Amino acid sequence: MEIKLIKSNHAVGESNFHLQLTPAYRRGIFENAQTSELTLAYIAEKLIELKVILVGYGFGPNHLHLFVANVRFVGEAELVRQIKGYSSYKMRKHFKNLFSDKLWGKKFWTEGHFYRSVGAVNYETMKHYVEESQEKHWEIKSIKQESAIILQKNLYDF
Q: What is the phi/psi pair of residue 34, to 5°?
């Protein structure tokens, strides 16, 4: 099993989420392909700005699923607030005519959302980490090295 982790100067790991966003009043605004495409385009713009990778997506008539990765520079709640706020503002400002028969006022999304962290952390992953990846953190010493350490003086012996 190959484990792919994101590496930076000071961290190694993964932070992936499955998100589900629902339009206000659970209306079927995504039945219109243009509304879906434009909403996704605005969400993608915001994700690029936040340095988050859009791995996959899927639309139902009244909801949107997103699978995002590299969520390191912003928390899950802030990520959702940013993408919902930005896409709502842009869609209402430029394309309100596409959904004005189903949504009214300043609402585009419901207040809530679903999220679940998604990753490769399970029993097998933890076993791999403990058995294989930790070797570099431990130094194997021979008995001669151990006795040499015992024979060393500390500062209080002088």
A: -65, -40
pLDDT of amino acid 94: 97
Q: Would residue 43 be called left, alpha or beta, if left means φ above 0 and alpha means ψ between -120 and 50 degrees?
A: alpha
Q: What is the pTM of this model?
A: 0.74
Q: What is the DSSP string of 48-91?
A: HHTT-EEEEEEEETTEEEEEEE---SS-HHHHHHHHHHHHHHHH
Contact 72, 117 (CB under 8 A): no
Dihedral of CA atoms 142, 147, 149, 153 in degrees, nearest 10, equals -170
Lookup: tokens for 12:
């190694």
Q: Which CATH architecture has domain 14-119?
A: 2-Layer Sandwich (3.30)
- Residue spans of the domains in the chain: they are 14-119
- Secondary structure tally for the chain: helices H, strands E: 4, 6
pLDDT 10s digits, 76-97 = 999 999 999 999 999 999 999 9
Q: For residue 48, what pLDDT band results from cuts at 50, 70 and 90?
A: very high
- The tokens of 149 are what? 């350490």
Say how far residue 145 (Cα) sits from the centre of its chain: 46
